[in-house]
Every structure is written in C-alpha cells, then in structure tokens.
C-alpha cells in the first residue's frame, strides 16, 4: 500500500532523511517513534508530498507520489492527513468543516456530504456538535472533527502527525480511541506518536528513527521488550521510566 524506497531529504546542509526504506502493507498500522529531530514528521509529510524529496520514490496505492507527471491534488484525495494543530476553519461549523472538501473536490451534493459528515461525526462521539464552531470545542473534540474531515474523503491511507501532542492529557484518550477504532476497521495508517502504550497496543510495526535514519523496525512485542539497537534501548530506558 505504501512503499518508500531510498528516500533522501535535506534542508540546506542538514540531511534530515537518509536512505529511508519502508513498506506498509494494506490494513497495517505503523508507528514512527524516536527522539525529537529524528525526521519522523518530515518523513510522514513526504508521503503525501507536503515535503518534497531529493532522491528516491514513494508509492501509495500504486501511484508514484513525487513523480512530476502525478496529479498530486488528485492523489491526496486518497491520503488523509491529520495534523498536530487541527487546522480547522474557525468560521465554519464542525459539520461544514467536514463537508467542504467532499463538495468542492469530489463534487458531492450538499445533502450527500452532510449525510456522510453527520455519520462520521456521530461515530466519533460528536453527534451533538454538528453546528458548533471550533472555538466552542475542546482540543480533543477539534481533533476528532479533523479526523472526520479526513475520513470524509474516503481515503485509502490515513497519516497522523503527532495527533495528541497539542492536547491536554485528559483529552488524549478520546483521540486515541478514535484512531484505535480506525485500526479495528482495517484502515492503513502511519502514526507519528509519543504515546508508547498506544503504539504497543494497536500497531503492527514500530519504526524507530534517530538522526534522520530508520534504526530499527520490529513488531511492538519485540521492540518494547527486546530492541536490537543500543540507540533504541537508550530511548526506551528514558521514555518508559518517566
């Protein structure tokens, strides 16, 4: 479903991604974890070309994302992206935030888009918030609206860039529960996260990054109990003991 081959990316003289190779099969959930500055957010942003790459290739559902011939706007309709900071339109209601792209990009009628939008918001526990504006919603509620907005395009892949990092601790669970439900439904997902318990519970593979490289890829039961690399061992000794 997602194939990343020999990807390199630099910002000036700073090599932020070095020889990245990764395969994400359909319906798998992959967590990108590692210290700050490891390149996790840059990597996930290259999957839908929010960041360009210098060399290599990224293929999503058979489409070469960085090929100059690819219609990236069309390709992105198949790739849902949820940001750290919600990025909702403040002047639109929750339902309007969810329905605007399906109507403008996919040509759905207002009735069709609203029916789907209400179904999604209700499934995410927001059935009473259709008319609420983002400023009237908690951080956790805003992030769930953002998830509904991404799902409204019926993507084949969902990307999450630290979706709980901007939330108060008590709001984290409701967002993680929403992502957990997507995993249970078989959605292909890549998640940048600092939530180790969540990664251990729902992910098929843990990808540990440091200094712009993939250091280790392992199933969660192996990674969290017996990582191979010294770098991963040091990382876990810090994050699991605090």
UniProtKB/TrEMBL annotation:
GO MF: ABC-type amino acid transporter activity; ATP binding; ATP hydrolysis activity
Alphabetized CDD domains for the sequence: ABC_HisP_GlnQ (cd03262)
InterPro entries registered for this protein in UniProt: AAA+_ATPase (IPR003593), ABC_ATPase_HisP-typ (IPR030679), ABC_transporter-like_ATP-bd (IPR003439), ABC_transporter-like_CS (IPR017871), MetN_ABC_transporter-like (IPR050086), P-loop_NTPase (IPR027417)
Domain ABC transporter: 2-236
One Pfam family this sequence matches: ABC_tran
Recorded topology in the membrane: Peripheral membrane protein
GO cellular component, one term: plasma membrane
Domain of life: Bacteria
UniProtKB keywords: Amino-acid transport, ATP-binding, Cell membrane, Membrane, Nucleotide-binding, Transport
Subcellular location: Cell membrane
Family according to the record: Belongs to the ABC transporter superfamily.
Name of the protein this chain belongs to: Amino acid ABC transporter ATPase
Naturally occurring in which organism (per UniProt): Viridibacillus arvi
């Amino acid at each position: 479903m997602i194939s990343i081959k020999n990807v390199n990316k630099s910002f000036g003289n700073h090599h932020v991604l070095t020889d990245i190779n990764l395969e994400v099969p359909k319906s798998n959930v992959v967590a990108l974890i590692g210290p700050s500055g490891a390149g996790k957010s840059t990597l996930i942003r290259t999957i839908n070309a929010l960041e360009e790459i210098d060399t290599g290739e990224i293929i999503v559902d058979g489409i070469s994302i960085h090929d100059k011939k690819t219609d990236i706007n069309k390709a992105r309709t198949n790739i849902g992206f949820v940001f750290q900071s919600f990025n909702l339109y403040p002047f639109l209601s929750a339902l309007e935030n969810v329905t605007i792209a399906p109507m403008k990009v996919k040509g759905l009628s207002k009735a069709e888009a609203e029916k789907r939008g209400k179904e999604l918001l209700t499934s995410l526990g927001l059935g009473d918030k259709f008319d609420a504006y983002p400023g009237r919603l908690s951080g956790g509620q805003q992030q769930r609206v953002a998830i509904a907005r991404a799902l409204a395009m019926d993507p084949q892949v969902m990307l999450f860039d630290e979706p709980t990092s901007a939330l108060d601790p008590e709001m984290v669970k409701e967002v993680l529960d929403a992502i957990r439900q997507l995993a249970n439904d078989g959605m292909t997902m890549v998640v940048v996260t600092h939530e180790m318990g969540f990664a251990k519970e729902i992910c098929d593979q843990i990808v540990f990054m440091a200094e712009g490289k993939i250091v280790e890829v392992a199933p969660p039961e192996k990674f969290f109990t017996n990582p191979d690399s010294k770098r991963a061992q040091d990382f876990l000794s810090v994050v699991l003991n605090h």
